[in-house]
Amino acid sequence: MKMKKNNTFSEIRVALQKAKNILILPHIKADGDAVGSASALLEIFRKSGKNVMALAAEEPLPSLAVLVHEGYVTELPEGFMPDLLITVDCADESRFKDRGDLFPGVKILNLDHHISNTRFGHLDYVIGNLSSTGELIYSLFDSLGYKINKKAARSILGAILLDTNRFYYSTTGTRTLEIAAEIIERGVSLSSLCEELFGNTPRERLLLLAKAIERAVFFSEQRGVYCWLSSEVQQEAGTEDTDDIVEALRDIEGVELALLLYEYKGTLRASLRSFGNINVGKVAVAFGGGGHTNAAGITFSDLSYEKALHRLLPELEGLLARKN
Ligand SMILES: [Mn+2]
Fold first, then answer.
1. Residues with CB under 5 A from ligand 1 (ion)
2. What is the mean pLDDT of residues 166-181?
3. What is the reported pTM?
4. Lowest-confidence range among 181-195, 204-218, 291-305?
5. Quick check: 225 and 258 in contact, CB under 8 A?
6. Which residue among 22, 23, 61, 178 sits deepest, i.e. has the most Cβ atoms within 10 Å of its Cβ?
7. From the CA of 134, how far away is ligand 1's center (Å)?
């Protein structure tokens, strides 16, 4: 498959100059990178005189409220008609189709860092294996000469922190850290941002994590682990926020690959995490999902948990066997 090239800075600059009403689309079940990136763009464009909104599929998670700026909505104000859509952190069209379909024919600028990105945009700017869409937006808009104010910069730093798991992952490059430093130089406090992002874990989330650890099943000589969190278990814990659970499973001593299967709004989802060159992204793509080498996800439209596990497990065992 021949990969469509990125559009040039000047092509993107022209498209942005022409646009008067810009609509930003974060992906469904928006994570910190999607919320932070969309919110940063709201600030960047508003300060440059654009009429801009971000339309999300759902209210942002309470833990991400610190990154959100004015204009981040789940329903557009009457009469708002975009002449440019900007998708952020969306690897393919299924990630924003629920809202994108409302605006047929409107040009799309695709900003993303997923290696599996299908380059669905009229304009694409995708750098695979970059730390985050937040980093991509900082670099791009800095290069294009846009002013990135303190509020936008803070949301970008949050996006970077959350997508790199606090600079833990190998996607953290020297430029990632330089950008973080530049943002801190603008007066953003790293420690207070971290306190707000990481120092407010609701007890329900830890209770769900405890249930996940209890339910963990190990395979491939304890190098792999999987766990199933049904909606009943989520209800018992009092939260359906499964964020960070798959990372906690992967961080168990000896574990190199973790799979979390969970129900989310009537669908079955799989989250995969791994270390090193164990490519869970490839497995996810084979099942219609997407992601990166070490972090990927799949949504199963009509498979039971048992069937999904039955199909996934041999693939994951195969990945671990190959690495031996
Ligand atoms: Mn991301």
1. 33, 89, 133, 163
2. 96
3. 0.89
4. 291-305
5. yes
6. 23
7. 8
